[in-house]
Amino acid sequence: MFQSKIKVEISNLQCNKHFGNPYLQIKIDKGCNGIERLMCSECIADQRGVYNVMSIVEASERIQNLKSQQQQQIVDFIKSQKQMLEKLREKTNSLQSKIYELFSSLNQKFDDYSVELDNLVAEYNFCDLLKEINFLFESPNQIIYQQFLIDSERIQAMNRIYSSKVNNLTLTLKSIIADWNVQNEFDEKFNEISTQINDNRINKNHSILTKIQEVKQQQSCWAIAFNKSNSIMAAGCEENIKIWNFQDNKLIDSGIVLKGHSDYVQCLVFSKYHDWFVSGGLDEKIICWNQINIKKWQGNQFLNTGQGIIQCLILTPAEDQIISSHDSKIKVWNLNIECNMISFKQSLDMHKSTVQSICINENQTFLISSASDNKLILWSKKSSQEWSYQCTINKITNDCGNRVSFISNSTFVLQLEKQGILHIFNFENGEFIEKPELKVILKSEKEQDRTLLFPSIFNKKKNIFVQKHHKYVYILKKDNKNQLSINGDPISCESKFNYGTITNDGNNLIIWNLESRSFNVYQIN
User: Fold this and answer.
1) From which domain of life does this come (predicted)?
2) Contact 472, 443 (CB under 8 A)
3) Which of 70, 247, 437, 522 has the most other CB atoms within 10 Å of its CB?
4) What is the 3-state secondary structure (H, E, C) of 414-445?
């Protein structure tokens, strides 16, 4: 049983106002801090009004008890780590002994071989006259050459014998070291601890999501977006776009259906400042939509890119550019919303296969792209205001990124395809560095996502992060250190084919689910 050694020192605490009198009581009302709470006998006598107090002895006992509980908590938490370290130490000591024995055996074989070679030389120190006299009448060169052949063969035989012995010892050594993979054990324990921490961060006492409404929607809906005032929702319904009104946390069918695409709509992005949005789809088209009146929207520019399906589509924060991905290429388009005009700006062509996710930071200094070629590329702006390749970002796990999103100007989150883990990257010393200690392990860690739509969403107003992985949708909270923690239990959508978004104010989450073929509206508490 762990025994706490915590002591709260109170004997040296003396009143500064009354000539070093010892403190006797502590105010426990709000509005006081530190030494302002402490009172000696004269302070108590001078006190006016009614205050909640406790004796300094009781306060010290409470503090000691609380600190002991905190200490016990961390002792319990690190107990398994200490056990792991002890096991690794035992294995290391055992390995050290085995390796020492093997190296000793190797050195012994080298010594034995050296002795045999010395013995071969020493044989010439003694000779039998009766045997050697018969060779006196032969050519000396021939005698020496013949003896060299005999000695060479003996040395080759020794080489084969000792080479086999050394090889067997070396293979044994390699096998022992291969079986002792301390890095894997550390990684397993680290993931186990990360899971414990995430589980502890989840607030089990209440759900942060309240389901408000379910509305049937038979056609597949792959993209959803809200206007600037959160009063209108646009949803891609196969090749059409359906407009919904959103009032009192509920969806109301407006009856407006926008036609212009000839294949499934995959991307929808609303302006944060205008009654305008842009759509992209499998038909390789980008279409700008402008609201004429409460009942009418107009597609003013139909841009057939001819560059491949539109997988990703984002607006820059300044809303002066659209950035889209088309197979392995990223296209940048200049945008004038008031004139509803799009013009080609540049192409970013460093990926070798499908670009699966793109994101831009709020300052518009960094653009990140992730593709199925397993590359994570950082683009930056030059003085010419054109984007240029800066570097390929190193990541610990060699897998392609399904979703990438900035949560601050210098921090982004990457979710890979083959595991339910959020990897955090910080910008330090001129480059983005992965921070494994900040990673978040999701409930569906071992599941492959296999879907690319429903992008990760960070809402700055509420400091919340929405993450879809497999059949689950998670709400995470960001703290002031850019650390994410899972907030409440995730939503289970029964199918990995679910697509959604949140309102701009961060109050509502809307998900379309293939299994139920309906919109589910949630209030984020």
Assistant:
1) Eukaryota
2) yes
3) 522
4) EEECCCCEEEEEEEECCEEEECHHHCEECCCC
Residue 42 inside a domain? The answer is: no
State the residue for tokens 């399906």.
309
C-alpha angle 405-407-408 in degrees, rounded to nearest 5: 125
The least confident of 142-151, 403-412, 422-431, 475-484 is: 142-151
CA–CA gap between residue 493 and residue 447 (Å, rounded): 14
Q: Helices (H) and strands (E) in the chain — how many of each?
A: 5, 33
Buried b / exposed e across 369-408, counting CB within 10 Å, b at 16+? bbbbbbbbbbbeeeeeeebeebeebebeeebbbbbbbbbe
Regarding whether 89 and 142 lie in a shared domain, the answer is: yes
Backbone torsions φ then ψ of 162, nearest 5 degrees? -75, -30
Residue 80, SS3 per DSSP: helix
Q: How many CB atoms lie within 10 A of CB 133?
A: 9
CA 232 to CA 510: how far, in whole Å? Answer: 13
**What pLDDT shows up at residue 487?**
87
Give the pairing of strands 411-416 and 401-408.
antiparallel
Closest residue by Cα to residue 447 from 480, 483, 490, 479: 490
Q: Which among 308, 297, 224, 233 has a CA at the least distance from the CA of 263?
A: 308
Residue bearing tokens 């088309």? 326
What's the rounded Cα separation, in Å, for the pair 349 and 266?
A: 22
HSE, CB side, 13 Å, CA atoms: give it for residue 9: 3
The whole domain housing 341 covers 218-349
Distances (CA, A) of 191 to 151, 195, 271, 414: 61, 6, 40, 17
User: Is the domain of 291 the same as that of 375?
Assistant: no
Q: Tell whether 344 and 228 lie within a shared domain.
A: yes
Same domain, 188 and 298: no
Whether 398 and 343 share a structural domain: no
Burial 58-85 (b: 16+ CB within 10 A, else e): ebbeeeeeeeeeeeeeeeeeeeeeeebe
Query: What dihedral angle (degrees, nearest 10) is formed by the CA atoms of 264, 270, 276, 279?
Result: -20
pTM for this prediction: 0.64
For residue range 222-241, list pLDDT tens digits in order: 999 999 999 999 999 999 99
What's the per-residue H, E or C state across 335-384? EECCCCEEEEEEEECCCCCCEEEEEECCCCCEEEEEECCCCEEEEEECCC
Confidence of residue 1 (pLDDT cuts 50, 70, 90): very low
Q: Which of 316, 340, 406, 318 is nearest to 370 (CA)?
A: 406
Residue at 432: amino acid letter: F
Confidence check: pLDDT of 472 > 60 = yes
Token couple for 511 = 């998900």
For 173-192, the three-class secondary structure string (H helix, E strand, C coil) is: HHHHHHHCCHHHHHHHHHHH
**Cβ neighbours of residue 410 closer than 8 Å, sequence gap 6 or more:** 361, 426, 427
Percent of the chain with pLDDT over 90: 43
Q: Which backbone phi and psi does 518 adopt, to 5 degrees? A: -155, 160
Q: Record the tokens describing residue 271, joined without a space.
A: 């302006």
Please tell me whether residues 411 and 498 are part of one structural domain: yes
